[in-house]
């Protein structure tokens, strides 16, 4: 039975071979540079895909929430790091999980660390998140006074273990000079290591962004790489130069429900609730919510002719279709859509269908 015979409504397909190749390539790169790969599992959010990752020597992962960390507990990970400024309202939940799983959290202020120092009942590690120019969250690289205060607070509790510094240079996604951002981030972590390693000889520095980790080849004395999106990649990563479209490992299969030859458009069942609403702006100013690929028994292929999802609403998607696509499809057929942002698409869909017809788990589908 073909996997396509199992698709009746929008379904997120996963190509295991491409996924494994992406994981292996990043793992090999980390080993080549003497770094530890600790991928951010907010992209895959899956037990099964985690098992694939373990085949390439990955022993730790990062979660985007305590919910995801809880989902990943009991899967044999040496440590699960929650890479989001810790929410103290979830401390009881953290204590419960830490009874049986090594965990670490992200710290950006003294209020949170003071609360944990008083209320933790289990040992928990923590990274201090550093802001070296992104501006979203984190302690400024120049604020040594705050860093010192955080380290002093941690000394007051036998439950808090300082692990090191974490830096996510998210501005690599929108600043053209990615090499400059990468160099600034690498240098910031080096500065911190030089300043604090005499006091904390075991501290680790972790750099986590897919564009930098995928493209750059010089990581200095950074200890760990923490990219996430590389597991699947997507159209945004392809536009940034992190990958090619052939490296994209997931694809949304959508049914064609109407064809308008006059407008050269297809109406598909596939909208914002399936893909999210991340968008790329094309050179002519038009919006691209995903690109069409041709589905087959062996997966999908990128056609020589170009068709794309020009607009989406909650359940609807409108495809601007090439003449070749219009000539080859009929109502009821399936086409594939490469996502703009695979992390969000996977989160929306809550499970994957492999090309051999197996359902692959996702945290949001539990």
Supply the helix-strand structural class. Answer: alpha/beta
| Tally of distinct domains | 2
The biggest sheet amounts to: 10 strands, mixed
User: What would the principal axes of the Cα set say about the shape?
Assistant: elongated
Number of helices: 12
Give me the CATH superfamily of the largest domain. Answer: Alanine racemase
Radius of gyration: 22 Å
Under the CATH scheme, the architecture of the largest domain is Alpha-Beta Barrel
How far apart the termini lie comes to 26 Å
CATH class of the largest domain: Alpha Beta
CATH topology annotation of the largest domain: TIM Barrel
What's this entry about, in short?
This protein is an alpha/beta fold.
Descriptive account of the structure:
Residues 18-230 form the Alanine racemase N-terminal domain. Keywords: Glycosyltransferase, Lyase, Transferase. InterPro entries: Ala_racemase_N (IPR001608), D-amino_acid_metab_enzyme (IPR051466), D-ser_dehydrat-like_dom (IPR026956), D-ser_dehydrat-like_sf (IPR042208), PLP-binding_barrel (IPR029066). The structure is a single chain. The protein is α/β, with parallel strands linked by helices and 366 residues long. The protein has two domains: 3-12 and 244-365, Lyase, Ornithine Decarboxylase, Chain A, domain 1 (Beta Barrel), CATH 2.40.37; 16-233, TIM Barrel. It has helices at 16-32, 47-54, 66-72, 91-98, 110-119, 144-155, 178-196, 210-215, 235-240, 272-275, 323-328, 342-349; strands at 11-14, 36-37, 60-63, 79-85, 103-107, 124-131, 139-140, 160-167, 204-207, 224-225, 250-260, 265-269, 280-281, 287-288, 290-296, 299-301, 308-312, 316-320, 334-339, 352-354, 359-360. Strands 1, 11, 12, 15, 16, 17, 18, 19, 20 and 21 form a ten-stranded mixed β-sheet that branches. Strands 2, 3, 4, 5, 6, 7, 8, 9 and 10 form a nine-stranded parallel β-sheet that branches. A two-stranded antiparallel ribbon has the order 13-14. A hairpin with a 2-residue loop joins β15 and β16 (299-301). It is elongated, with a radius of gyration of 22 Å.
């Amino acid at each position: 039975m073909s996997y396509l015979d199992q698709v009746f409504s929008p379904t997120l397909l996963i190509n295991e071979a491409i996924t494994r190749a992406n994981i292996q390539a990043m793992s090999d790169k980390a080993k080549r540079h003497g770094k530890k790969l600790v991928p951010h599992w907010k992209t895959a959010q899956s037990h099964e895909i985690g098992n694939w990752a373990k085949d390439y020597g990955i022993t730790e992962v990062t979660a985007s929430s305590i919910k995801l960390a809880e989902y990943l507990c009991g899967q044999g990970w040496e440590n699960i790091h929650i890479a989001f400024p810790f929410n103290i309202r979830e401390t009881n939940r953290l204590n419960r999980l830490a009874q049986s799983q090594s965990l670490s959290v992200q710290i950006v202020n003294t209020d949170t660390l003071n609360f944990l120092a008083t209320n933790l009942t289990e040992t928990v590690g923590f990274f201090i998140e550093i802001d070296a120019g992104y501006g979203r969250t984190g302690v400024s690289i120049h604020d040594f006074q705050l860093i010192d205060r955080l380290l002093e607070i941690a000394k007051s509790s036998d439950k808090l273990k300082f692990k090191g510094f974490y830096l996510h240079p998210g501005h690599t996604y929108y600043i053209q000079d990615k090499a400059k951002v990468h160099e600034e981030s690498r240098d910031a972590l080096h500065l911190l290591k030089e300043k604090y390693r005499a006091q904390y000889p075991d501290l680790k520095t972790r750099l986590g962004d897919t564009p930098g980790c995928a493209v750059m080849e010089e990581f200095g004395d950074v200890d760990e790489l923490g990219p996430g999106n590389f597991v699947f990649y997507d159209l945004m990563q392809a536009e940034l130069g992190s990958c090619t479209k052939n490296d994209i490992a997931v694809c949304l299969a959508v049914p064609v429900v109407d064809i308008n030859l006059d407008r050269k458009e297809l109406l598909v069942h596939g909208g914002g609730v399936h893909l999210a609403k991340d968008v790329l702006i094309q050179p002519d100013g038009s919006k691209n919510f995903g690109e069409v690929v041709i589905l087959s028994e062996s997966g999908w292929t990128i056609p020589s002719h170009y068709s794309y999802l020009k607009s989406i609403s909650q359940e609807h998607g409108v495809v601007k279709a090439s003449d070749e696509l219009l000539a080859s499809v009929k109502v009821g057929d399936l086409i594939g859509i490469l996502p703009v942002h695979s992390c969000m698409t996977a989160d929306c869909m809550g499970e994957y269908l492999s090309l051999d017809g197996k359902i692959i788990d996702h945290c949001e589908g539990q």
